[in-house]
Amino acid sequence: MPLVYPRVLYHGYKTWHAPRDFHALVRPLPAVLQPYVPQFRYSLHDLSARTNAEIKGDVLTRLVQLAMRWIFSQEPLEHLERLIALIDQIADRDTALEILESLLRYDVQGTQRVAEDDARQLLEQTSPGDPIMQTFIDRYIEQGREQGERQGEAKLLLRLMERKFGPADVKLRQQIQEADAETLLAWSERILTAETPEAVFH
To answer: Looking at the whole model, is its pTM more than 0.70?
Structure first.
Protein backbone atom coordinates (compact mmCIF):
# COMPACT_ATOMS: atom_id res chain seq x y z
CA MET A 1 0.00 0.00 0.00
CA PRO A 2 1.21 3.55 -0.66
CA LEU A 3 2.23 5.64 2.33
CA VAL A 4 -0.42 8.13 3.47
CA TYR A 5 0.70 11.16 5.46
CA PRO A 6 -2.38 12.96 6.85
CA ARG A 7 -1.84 16.67 7.33
CA VAL A 8 -4.29 19.46 8.16
CA LEU A 9 -3.55 23.03 7.13
CA TYR A 10 -5.82 25.29 9.18
CA HIS A 11 -6.32 29.06 8.98
CA GLY A 12 -9.49 29.82 10.91
CA TYR A 13 -10.38 32.67 13.27
CA LYS A 14 -9.32 30.72 16.38
CA THR A 15 -6.68 28.12 17.15
CA TRP A 16 -7.44 24.45 16.42
CA HIS A 17 -8.88 22.50 19.36
CA ALA A 18 -10.27 19.34 17.73
CA PRO A 19 -8.73 15.94 18.68
CA ARG A 20 -5.78 14.92 16.54
CA ASP A 21 -6.25 11.17 16.60
CA PHE A 22 -8.77 9.59 14.26
CA HIS A 23 -10.61 7.41 16.81
CA ALA A 24 -11.36 10.48 18.93
CA LEU A 25 -12.88 12.21 15.90
CA VAL A 26 -15.40 9.40 15.22
CA ARG A 27 -16.47 8.76 18.83
CA PRO A 28 -18.59 7.32 20.21
CA LEU A 29 -16.86 4.37 18.60
CA PRO A 30 -18.11 0.96 19.81
CA ALA A 31 -15.32 -1.23 21.13
CA VAL A 32 -16.31 -4.04 18.78
CA LEU A 33 -15.56 -1.80 15.77
CA GLN A 34 -12.26 -0.36 17.00
CA PRO A 35 -10.08 -3.07 15.39
CA TYR A 36 -11.63 -2.27 12.01
CA VAL A 37 -11.35 1.53 12.10
CA PRO A 38 -7.93 2.94 11.14
CA GLN A 39 -6.14 4.68 13.97
CA PHE A 40 -3.69 7.45 13.22
CA ARG A 41 -2.82 11.01 14.12
CA TYR A 42 -2.69 13.81 11.61
CA SER A 43 -0.04 16.48 11.43
CA LEU A 44 -1.52 19.88 12.21
CA HIS A 45 -0.24 23.09 10.66
CA ASP A 46 -2.22 25.80 12.48
CA LEU A 47 -1.60 29.20 10.85
CA SER A 48 -3.92 30.97 13.27
CA ALA A 49 -1.52 30.28 16.16
CA ARG A 50 1.49 31.80 14.39
CA THR A 51 2.66 35.35 13.96
CA ASN A 52 3.62 36.69 10.54
CA ALA A 53 7.29 36.50 11.54
CA GLU A 54 6.94 32.80 12.41
CA ILE A 55 5.79 31.94 8.89
CA LYS A 56 9.04 31.07 7.17
CA GLY A 57 10.27 29.19 4.11
CA ASP A 58 10.80 30.08 0.48
CA VAL A 59 8.77 32.76 -1.23
CA LEU A 60 6.06 30.43 -2.52
CA THR A 61 5.64 28.70 0.85
CA ARG A 62 5.29 32.00 2.69
CA LEU A 63 3.01 33.37 0.00
CA VAL A 64 0.50 30.54 0.30
CA GLN A 65 0.51 30.56 4.09
CA LEU A 66 0.19 34.33 4.38
CA ALA A 67 -2.61 34.45 1.80
CA MET A 68 -4.56 31.96 3.90
CA ARG A 69 -3.67 33.62 7.20
CA TRP A 70 -4.71 37.08 6.01
CA ILE A 71 -8.00 36.06 4.42
CA PHE A 72 -9.84 37.23 7.57
CA SER A 73 -7.80 40.43 7.90
CA GLN A 74 -9.46 43.77 8.55
CA GLU A 75 -6.95 45.33 6.13
CA PRO A 76 -7.36 43.09 3.05
CA LEU A 77 -6.10 45.63 0.50
CA GLU A 78 -2.88 46.31 2.44
CA HIS A 79 -2.20 42.61 2.76
CA LEU A 80 -2.95 42.01 -0.92
CA GLU A 81 -0.29 44.63 -1.71
CA ARG A 82 2.25 42.74 0.42
CA LEU A 83 1.38 39.45 -1.28
CA ILE A 84 1.84 41.00 -4.73
CA ALA A 85 5.26 42.24 -3.58
CA LEU A 86 6.15 38.65 -2.65
CA ILE A 87 4.98 37.42 -6.05
CA ASP A 88 7.31 39.96 -7.65
CA GLN A 89 10.24 38.09 -6.05
CA ILE A 90 9.48 34.87 -7.96
CA ALA A 91 12.08 34.51 -10.70
CA ASP A 92 9.98 32.39 -13.07
CA ARG A 93 7.56 34.98 -14.47
CA ASP A 94 5.13 32.40 -15.88
CA THR A 95 4.81 30.91 -12.39
CA ALA A 96 4.46 34.39 -10.94
CA LEU A 97 1.57 35.18 -13.30
CA GLU A 98 -0.21 31.92 -12.46
CA ILE A 99 0.10 32.66 -8.75
CA LEU A 100 -1.07 36.24 -9.21
CA GLU A 101 -4.13 35.08 -11.13
CA SER A 102 -4.94 32.48 -8.44
CA LEU A 103 -4.47 35.07 -5.71
CA LEU A 104 -6.83 37.52 -7.40
CA ARG A 105 -9.45 34.82 -7.83
CA TYR A 106 -9.12 33.85 -4.17
CA ASP A 107 -8.86 37.33 -2.63
CA VAL A 108 -11.08 39.31 -5.00
CA GLN A 109 -13.52 37.15 -6.96
CA GLY A 110 -13.75 34.31 -4.46
CA THR A 111 -14.08 35.98 -1.08
CA GLN A 112 -14.90 39.49 -2.35
CA ARG A 113 -12.89 40.94 0.55
CA VAL A 114 -11.17 43.29 -1.87
CA ALA A 115 -13.20 45.33 -4.34
CA GLU A 116 -12.38 44.79 -8.01
CA ASP A 117 -11.72 48.49 -8.58
CA ASP A 118 -9.32 48.64 -5.63
CA ALA A 119 -7.48 45.55 -6.86
CA ARG A 120 -7.06 46.99 -10.34
CA GLN A 121 -5.87 50.33 -8.99
CA LEU A 122 -3.32 48.48 -6.86
CA LEU A 123 -2.14 46.44 -9.85
CA GLU A 124 -1.65 49.58 -11.92
CA GLN A 125 0.90 50.73 -9.34
CA THR A 126 2.98 47.51 -9.39
CA SER A 127 5.75 46.06 -11.59
CA PRO A 128 6.17 49.06 -13.93
CA GLY A 129 9.38 47.60 -15.46
CA ASP A 130 8.20 44.03 -16.02
CA PRO A 131 6.65 43.71 -19.51
CA ILE A 132 5.21 40.24 -18.84
CA MET A 133 3.57 41.30 -15.61
CA GLN A 134 2.40 44.54 -17.20
CA THR A 135 0.74 42.62 -20.04
CA PHE A 136 -1.20 40.56 -17.49
CA ILE A 137 -2.17 43.65 -15.51
CA ASP A 138 -3.34 45.47 -18.65
CA ARG A 139 -5.44 42.46 -19.62
CA TYR A 140 -6.91 42.19 -16.13
CA ILE A 141 -7.81 45.88 -16.09
CA GLU A 142 -9.34 45.66 -19.58
CA GLN A 143 -11.43 42.67 -18.48
CA GLY A 144 -12.68 44.82 -15.61
CA ARG A 145 -13.72 47.58 -17.98
CA GLU A 146 -15.53 45.09 -20.20
CA GLN A 147 -17.23 43.56 -17.19
CA GLY A 148 -18.35 47.00 -16.01
CA GLU A 149 -19.76 47.82 -19.44
CA ARG A 150 -21.58 44.49 -19.59
CA GLN A 151 -23.11 45.07 -16.15
CA GLY A 152 -24.25 48.51 -17.29
CA GLU A 153 -25.87 47.05 -20.41
CA ALA A 154 -27.58 44.34 -18.34
CA LYS A 155 -28.93 46.94 -15.91
CA LEU A 156 -30.28 49.06 -18.76
CA LEU A 157 -31.94 46.09 -20.48
CA LEU A 158 -33.56 44.99 -17.22
CA ARG A 159 -34.92 48.47 -16.70
CA LEU A 160 -36.37 48.55 -20.20
CA MET A 161 -37.93 45.11 -19.70
CA GLU A 162 -39.59 46.25 -16.47
CA ARG A 163 -40.82 49.48 -18.06
CA LYS A 164 -42.41 47.58 -20.95
CA PHE A 165 -43.55 44.31 -19.35
CA GLY A 166 -43.63 44.96 -15.61
CA PRO A 167 -41.50 43.50 -12.78
CA ALA A 168 -39.11 40.76 -13.88
CA ASP A 169 -38.98 37.41 -12.12
CA VAL A 170 -35.82 35.96 -10.58
CA LYS A 171 -35.11 33.64 -13.52
CA LEU A 172 -35.30 36.46 -16.06
CA ARG A 173 -33.04 38.70 -13.95
CA GLN A 174 -30.46 35.96 -13.70
CA GLN A 175 -30.63 35.29 -17.43
CA ILE A 176 -29.92 38.94 -18.20
CA GLN A 177 -27.15 39.30 -15.61
CA GLU A 178 -25.30 36.21 -16.89
CA ALA A 179 -25.51 37.08 -20.60
CA ASP A 180 -22.46 38.24 -22.56
CA ALA A 181 -22.23 41.69 -24.19
CA GLU A 182 -23.15 40.49 -27.71
CA THR A 183 -26.27 38.70 -26.45
CA LEU A 184 -27.33 41.73 -24.41
CA LEU A 185 -27.04 43.88 -27.53
CA ALA A 186 -29.24 41.50 -29.52
CA TRP A 187 -31.86 41.42 -26.79
CA SER A 188 -31.82 45.22 -26.51
CA GLU A 189 -32.64 45.46 -30.22
CA ARG A 190 -35.46 42.91 -29.98
CA ILE A 191 -37.18 44.67 -27.11
CA LEU A 192 -38.11 47.48 -29.50
CA THR A 193 -40.55 45.23 -31.36
CA ALA A 194 -41.20 42.38 -28.90
CA GLU A 195 -44.75 42.04 -27.57
CA THR A 196 -43.88 39.59 -24.77
CA PRO A 197 -40.80 39.01 -22.57
CA GLU A 198 -40.31 35.61 -24.21
CA ALA A 199 -40.03 37.24 -27.63
CA VAL A 200 -36.99 39.19 -26.44
CA PHE A 201 -35.02 36.02 -25.72
CA HIS A 202 -35.99 33.90 -28.72
So the answer is: no
